[in-house]
Amino acid sequence: MSARTPENNAPHRAGFACFVGRPNAGKSTLTNALVGRKVAITSNRPQTTRHTVRGIVHRPDAQLILVDTPGLHKPRTLLGERLNDVVRTTWAEVDVIGFCLPADQKLGPGDKYIVKELAGIKRTPKIAIITKSDLADHKTLTEQLLAVSRLAEELGFEWAEIIPVSAVADKQVGLLADLIAPMLPESPPLYPEGDLTDEPEMVMVAELIREAALEGVRDELPHSIAVVVEEMLPREGRPADRPLLDIHANVYIERPSQKGIIIGPQGKRLKDVGTKSRKHIEALLGTPVYLDLHVKVAKDWQRDPKQLRKLGF
Questions:
Q1: Are strands 53-58 and 62-68 parallel, antiparallel or unpaired?
Q2: CA atoms lying within 13 Å on the CB side of residue 154
């Protein structure tokens, strides 16, 4: 029996939508914009997302559970293969698929590869989302809309919708939610009001630390960084009005030579990572935090099945 909204007696809808696209297509930023809060880490580096993060959008008529997937790409490591498997498994389980294509980048082989795979998914409605529309002029945006429409025609299917959005400029983000909602199945809400994600807090804290670490090392370090939160415990003996949460986390890199890069001269870079991530963690958890970070080497972890399991992949 479906829940019904009191306003118009229309059926309430709830379901899952995932955003797919090549790395750095704006999927995580779009997820955060729709939820209205940071639930997925973002970076200007490709292949930032390593987990499927569910962001939850609450509306009077619908509940959208957004599954933000890693970018589908040609894998060079065992980690890459596993991330691609995560994407394909997610496609098979959601109610709507949104293909993200940046407005300011030409439709490339990677995009065509993904759309070709989407063409084989027959029953799930697919929306083409032209992201980062604020970075393209009207002519470029129009060309991109036509190109993505033609590509679907060539592959023998039609997009349920094609929409340009800008998460950064908040352009048409609400309209995208309006378009997704009617495609979801009739259902009462699947998550309680107020829930914004179902990611465990420890995973989100680890992701916030990794985001800060990625910013800190810029182009000096490839995507060799993994973060594991070992412990999150309230500090004993603190007064009730002045709580403190102790968080102990390890930042893993692949080679001893990378250790100095992430720690920096006199430990300055690691300290910056701690300072930046702690602010976001305190905002997320709503409590003061003491963050204890250590850098460890997990040799060639992206290619080692045992290390991948240990690091949660």
A1: antiparallel
A2: 10
